[in-house]
């Protein structure tokens, strides 16, 4: 009986011990408030720490911005001495504030921008001051009744004329700030002339303090780690060429990745492809840098009268290439794929055109960077044109592939009927090949536009009088110009 009882199931109920329960602490109102305050302070500290980390990374990535901030602080510290030193303050008085304001408003990142604002401010102040004193002299001779009328009419006329001049494109590009300073100074002088007796001394003090602030800005920006707008423009054009090289190589390699030429990860490849967007967005920066570079004196390898406007033509040619690369990038993700035999028939030729086109851009980038005429650019362009001609010949042989008979049996198996038909399978052959033909035509157009970039760089080299580069030994496995021209003539015949 004991064994039978032991074999039976026993039902047990476990009652938890009240002492084994974990009691949640009751913090109360003060405790909960302290916890919330602690969480808020912790989040605030993390945000501040993240912001400081971003600031540190920005300073490490672009140390010239840190140098510019130090220069502004140095200029303001020096101009503040006119307040701290008693003899200087006795000479200028409260008008020293105009010198401080001039430093704050005029000091810019590049030397050209600072010179542009300094010259504009000085010219506008001189013209407005001299004109204001002259109008004041005429108003005094007109009598007490006509004096406010003469001053009011003069302010209306000259302020309107100066404001209208700011709408003129040539004036707005270079003298917009000067026109604004002219309006401000002339209005202050004309309005103050009605109540003040010592108007000439006011104009003289304002002119002297502006001259002090502007001169100090010019000296600091040119003597302490100068940042030249011309060098920045030169570097920007060089970087844009390198970005186009990466974008063109990346787009073609990604489109023909089944050919086995993709050696990097897709994430890095996508970053390289996006370089053309920087080229498309650089127009405003190029124009402003070109405008500021024209104000700068001779510096480094750039002489006075350097053809800065030619850089704008090169930038425009690069953007024309970037537009085609943007269209080419949109063809990469096409859902319709050409038959493998046709892709294989054109992939080598397309990759060859892409390679030779990027070689031209690389040679042009070296020409811009070293400011020396390239002895190989004609050879590179001839290579590119020869590769384009080969691509055209390969494209002409496509109809034989497209018109090939679909099948010789004329019967379909039952297994083939059971397979679901995809949308791409019912497309006519020409529709399947159309995206590939678009890529081919875009590569031809890109090669032609790169030729335009080469012409613009060659014109810059002649205008700026670039020195010829030392001859580099050509590679033995590359055809010479004579062989390329002979091949082109044979194909034409």
Short description:
This protein is mostly helical. 73% of the residues lie in helices and 1% in strands.
How would you characterize this protein structure?
This protein has helices at 2-7, 28-61, 63-79, 81-84, 86-92, 96-106, 111-141, 147-165, 169-192, 199-223, 229-255, 266-273, 275-280, 283-293, 309-332, 340-370, 377-396, 398-402, 414-418, 429-463, 481-492, and strands spanning 372-373, 467-468. By secondary structure, it is mostly helical. The protein has a two-stranded parallel sheet with strand order 1-2. Helix 7 (111-141) packs across helix 9 (169-192) and helix 14 (283-293) packs antiparallel against helix 15 (309-332).
Quote the distance from N terminus to C terminus: 115 Å
Question: What share of the residues does DSSP label as strand, in percent?
Answer: under 5%
State the share of residues found in helices, binned by percent: over 70%
- Total strand segments: 2
Tell me the overall shape: extended
The low-pLDDT segments are 403-426, 473-493
SSE blueprint and pairings:
Elements lengths: L1 H6 L20 H34 L1 H17 L1 H4 L1 H7 L3 H11 L4 H31 L5 H19 L3 H24 L6 H25 L5 H27 L10 H8 L1 H6 L2 H11 L15 H24 L7 H31 L1 E2 L3 H20 L1 H5 L11 H5 L10 H35 L3 E2 L12 H12 L1
Parallel strand pairs: 1-2
Helix pairs in contact: 2-3, 3-6, 3-10, 6-10, 7-8, 7-9, 7-10, 7-14, 8-9, 11-12, 11-14, 11-15, 11-16, 14-15, 15-20, 16-17, 16-20, 17-20, 17-21
What labels would you give this structure?
493 residues; mainly alpha; disordered C terminus; membrane; transmembrane helix; ALMT; transmembrane
